[in-house]
Design a protein that fits this description.
The protein is of the alpha/beta class. The chain has two domains: 107 residues, Rossmann fold, CATH 3.40.50; 177 residues, 3-Layer(aba) Sandwich (Rossmann fold), CATH 3.40.50. β6, α6 and β7 form a beta-alpha-beta unit. The protein is elongated, with a radius of gyration of 22 Å. The two termini are 22 Å apart.
C-alpha cells in the first residue's frame, strides 16, 4: 500500500499543526465532510475523519482511519469486502475514561451520597456505614481493551469483576469470564452490570428480556452503544424491579428525542455520550502512529475486523 494523498474530513488543520513537519512528504487536503466532492475522493489514497462524506465509498481509497473508537457509521456502508480497503479506528485511553465514569456512579451509591445529602437537608445526624468496594461485584459485557481496562481499575480497588464475551476466553483482571448463554450465573450475583459492547449484527438488542430477567435489583450502566439494548425491555425490567436504576450514556437514537419517555423517569440517568470523549490530539496521534506502521509494514493493532465489526 502506497499512501501519498490524504483527505482529512474536517477543519483540523490547526490541530494537525505539530504533525505537519512529520507529514511534509504527504499531500494533505482538509475539507468539511459536506464539502467533499467525488474528485477529492478520486484524488485521495487515504480518508481520515469522524464521519464518511455523503458520497464516500470504500473503493475510492486504500485506507480509512476514523477518529472514533466505534466504526458502525462506516461499516453501514457497502463495498468494504470488494474494495479490500483497510479500515482502522482510534485507540486511546477510552477504557480509563469509561472506568472513571462508571466508578463515579458506583461510589455515589456505596458512599451513600444521596442519603447524606437528604440528611443534611433535614438537619439530621445519622450514621450510615459506606459499603466497602471489596463487597461489590461487577459484571462487564465486553472483555476487549475497554472492558479489560475497566476490570483492571475495578479489581485494583478490591471489586470482584466478572466478564461476558462471545468466546468466554479468560482475561487478566477478571475473576472469571463466560459466554452470553452462561451469563446469568454472574449477573444474578452482581450489584452493577456494565455494557461496553460495540454495535454489530450479533450485539444488536442483545440486552433484552432474556438478559434482564437475571438482574437482581442491579444497576445497569451502558457506555458501549445504545442499540445493544432493547429499550422497551429495559423499561420493563425497571418497572418490575430487576434493574434498580439505569445509567445511560448512550441510547439507540442520539441526540435523545425531546419527547422520549426516558427523560422523565427517576430511575434512569441520561448523559450525552460523554463517558469517553475523543480528544482530537489523541486521535491524530493514533492516525500518525497507524500511518507509520503502514509505511514500515508493522503490525496494525487498530485494524478493524469486518467479521467482528470492531
Amino acid at each position: 500500500m502506497k499512501i501519498q494523498n490524504i483527505l482529512i474530513a474536517g477543519d483540523y488543520k490547526a490541530a494537525f499543526h505539530r504533525y505537519l513537519p512529520k507529514l511534509k512528504d504527504y499531500k494533505l487536503l482538509f475539507k468539511q465532510p459536506q464539502e467533499i466532492e467525488t474528485s477529492d475522493l478520486n484524488w485521495a489514497d487515504a480518508y481520515v475523519g469522524f464521519t464518511p462524506s455523503q458520497n464516500f465509498h470504500p473503493e475510492y481509497v486504500e485506507w480509512v482511519h476514523t477518529f472514533n473508537a466505534g466504526v458502525n457509521n462506516y461499516l453501514q456502508l457497502n463495498g468494504w469486502h470488494a474494495s479490500k480497503t483497510l479500515l482502522t479506528r482510534t485507540v486511546t485511553d477510552f477504557g480509563q475514561k469509561m472506568a472513571e465514569y462508571c466508578l463515579s456512579y458506583i461510589l455515589k451509591e456505596t458512599q451513600q451520597h444521596e442519603r447524606f445529602s437528604e440528611q443534611q437537608s433535614n438537619k439530621q445526624w445519622s450514621v450510615i456505614a459506606p459499603t466497602p468496594l471489596k463487597e461489590v461485584t461487577v459484571t462487564i459485557f465486553g472483555t476487549g481493551a475497554i472492558g479489560q481496562k475497566m476490570a483492571e481499575t475495578f479489581s485494583l480497588l478490591g471489586i470482584t469483576v466478572y466478564g461476558i464475551s462471545n468466546s468466554g476466553e479468560q482475561k487478566d483482571y477478571f475473576k472469571s469470564v463466560t459466554t452470553v448463554t452462561q451469563s446469568s450465573q454472574y449477573i444474578e450475583v452482581s450489584d452493577y452490570i456494565i455494557s461496553t459492547l460495540p454495535l454489530t449484527p450479533e450485539t444488536n438488542h442483545l440486552l433484552n428480556d432474556a438478559i434482564f430477567k437475571s438482574f437482581d435489583k442491579a444497576m445497569f450502566i451502558n457506555v458501549g452503544r445504545g442499540q445493544v439494548v432493547d429499550t422497551k425491555h429495559l423499561i420493563r425490567a425497571l418497572n418490575n424491579g430487576n434493574v434498580r436504576h439505569a445509567i445511560l450514556d448512550v441510547v439507540d437514537k442520539e441526540p435523545l428525542p425531546i419527547d422520549s419517555l426516558l427523560w422523565d423517569r427517576g430511575d434512569i440517568t441520561i448523559t450525552p455520550h460523554i463517558s469517553a470523549l475523543t480528544d482530537i490530539d489523541d486521535a491524530i496521534a493514533c492516525f500518525y502512529e497507524t500511518l507509520q506502521n503502514i509505511e514500515n509494514k508493522k503490525r496494525i493493532n487498530n485494524k478493524v475486523n469486518f467479521q467482528k465489526g470492531y
